Model the fold of this input.
Amino acid sequence: MDERAALSLVGGLVSSAGDDAAVVDGTVVTIDMLHEATDFPGGTTRYTAGWRAVGASLSDVAAMGASASAAVAVYGAPDFDEDELTGFVDGASEVCERVDAEYVGGDLDGHDEFTVATAAIGDVDERIGRDGASPGERVVVTGTLGRSAAALRLFEAGEIERANDLFRFDPRVAAGRALGEHATAMMDSSDGLARSLHQLAEASDCGFEIEAGAVPVADELRGLADDPLDEAISFGEDFELVATVPADAVSGVEAACDVPVSVVGEVTESGVSMDGDELADRGWTH
Amino acid sequence: MDERAALSLVGGLVSSAGDDAAVVDGTVVTIDMLHEATDFPGGTTRYTAGWRAVGASLSDVAAMGASASAAVAVYGAPDFDEDELTGFVDGASEVCERVDAEYVGGDLDGHDEFTVATAAIGDVDERIGRDGASPGERVVVTGTLGRSAAALRLFEAGEIERANDLFRFDPRVAAGRALGEHATAMMDSSDGLARSLHQLAEASDCGFEIEAGAVPVADELRGLADDPLDEAISFGEDFELVATVPADAVSGVEAACDVPVSVVGEVTESGVSMDGDELADRGWTH
Done:
């Protein structure tokens, strides 16, 4: 069974699975696991790893339209080097500070492969799921897409410091709360825009038409990739928010968000397309 | 740096580290990571693994004197077998049901080694830390000690079904809440009674005198271990609660708990001893 089939199986077993995070009595909770082989390219500092791992969980909280209150992590590694561990905790603490959450510790685990588990909690009055999009609404994306794809190119090229800078990101908690006032469906873009749209389309039983020229491709990716637009759309790992909002709410959302918001297309009855051509369900399978 | 030194380092960096779980605005949150090499002996079913991993996090919540509301998990494995995954989710869901919490899903991760990350949340008005014990108080332990040590022997002996039965446990959430009414310090016994006492002694700046004959050694361990008492005290992995309570609260605590509570000794000024002899700081380092 591949990972998507397995996720679908779990979705059938656990009633509340399927969103970026679970909500229980207004408390949002989410958990993630990242590890060296697939998530931390050679050159990733422990500071960046702590930031990114905890950030991924905070992004899940953001995608529910919630505020984030705290995060915890397990640091699993073959050995515990003081500088590495301090770096990790600093990165984890910093990314929490960025979203007014508190890093409240966690645990250590001896593990052959560097492996990090993170959980974040938050609060929400009205959760934003993936199933509320309706035809005619607009599709918006926060920030830019392709930063992580660019970081990976830079890691490969040995430009380690720039790569680490790009590999850290601000979880869109404030933007998620602003979007949450109007959004009918929302998720983060960690699987890539294309896959995110397919997931939203399936959950909301709708389609999407995207305008290629409106996709906010990260400047950092231009010059590094042969087809920056394609990578921005399908590479994923960017932790921006993808949301649907009524057309008349767009200007209010743009004004309320603390980051640029791009209108990239609209909700249709069915099918996911870009400039009229089918947009394949390609992206990152974690 | 060994794991205990590393934990101490983290404790200096993160103000709220050091207890079984963190508490933020009355919400308890904890995270754990278990993996095949150190936590799941050969023969452990995925059902037992799901139960035990989620149970470990629920036990951390219990140790704070809190109610448990929900748990999530990441299932990391080289492949996703339908029966294994279903078993895991069933075990995770069952252990949540036992403590009136809800298993609300999580995520999957392709991982060379079978690795599980779990987080649990709960609520508490007044947290029970590790630092409130005072000389003269009594030390109590819930249930019995040595079940996991016995399970390990049975796994080694090929008695897989009995081993799995013993390897699952009921997180002491209800007992933790009853104890929480009176306890001055509390933690779970996952590191073993001896190590737990040393940790409580350090946090509370006190000592303990334990009566060997009062330690509730699990019946299942007798006949399997050469020195059942020693293993019950030092093996750990049992997820019972170890708490200190004022002497006049003992009978009330015994009556209020839904499991047997044993008074195993009392809080002293300094030193950790059993029947007058020093009790070494031996136990499980996760």
